[in-house]
Amino acid sequence: MAEESAAPLESPPDAPRAKHLRPGDGPTTVPARIVNEVLYCERLAYLEWVQGEWADNAFTEEGRWAHRRADAGGGGLPEQDDARPYVARSVWLSSDALGIAAKIDVVEGEGERVFPIEYKRGTPPDVPEGAHLPERAQLCAQVLLLREHGFQCDEAALYFAGARRRVRITIDEALIAATLEAVATAKAFADRTAAPPPLVDSPKCDGCSLVGICLPDETQALREPVDEPRPLRRLHPARDDRKPVYVQEQGARVGLDGEQLVVRRKDGKDSARLVETSHLALFGNVQLSAQAMRTLAERDIPVLLFTYGGWFVGRVVGPERARTSSCASPSTGRRTTTRSVCGSRAR
Length: 347
Hints:
The chain is α/β, with parallel strands linked by helices.
């Protein structure tokens, strides 16, 4: 199945986390939010639910703001013989038979027929199903709980706060099967002694609030075989008359405008004069134009490449600096000079 790039995490799950589970002593119910995370990234679900890890970022804060009205609560599910229309917020339900628990943001109903609504930050993705599988499965878990409690529920919706629009989600047998399989996967976490492996070069890591805890690139690098340790060395001498330029915002683009480096971000741009730049450091998914790279090499200004978490990947240097630089040859292990790119893993 092709990897889906769903929205990053929005807020921590409200249900108690299964922290420090012991083998054979797993939970009887899995929060619907964890169903979402299992399908988004199993490592993320394990770190958050089993190990109790959590960290906020701009996306989680935005998600918390989008949920503020639903989280305020109000109303409740009426008796099943009450035919009056109603709206209930922050409705908690659980079922040992299904092995699921959930806090449903909004339930609109009339008598036994109900319509659950899950709030999400941002705008709906342009996909035929209306939303990615993790979000649809979270909503499906809520539908199954309502059915288990005797209500008629054939349809549900996701409300995207950024677009102020509801997206109706069809609950079919394929979605139900995927949801229940995710529940079984989450329950099996109790028998694991280590977190699942990280995703490799996945767009899902961009914006994930736990990326600094998960360290996907660093963990993957440590899993690679190492023939012999590489000694640490100074990459280039410090310069007091120039200042480094660090670009950490994911999706930023670095280009050239005359004698200036220009960093374009989603909400604006910054610039730095070439004559005052000692080196350029790029972290994660940051683009560098070919014109800027060539000019930096000609000016003998190194470009350093790092992962999200600051793990050194490699560097680009000009011909003058390359004459005094060296890298280990992967085939012979001997150190050879280079005039272009030198990549390594700092261990």
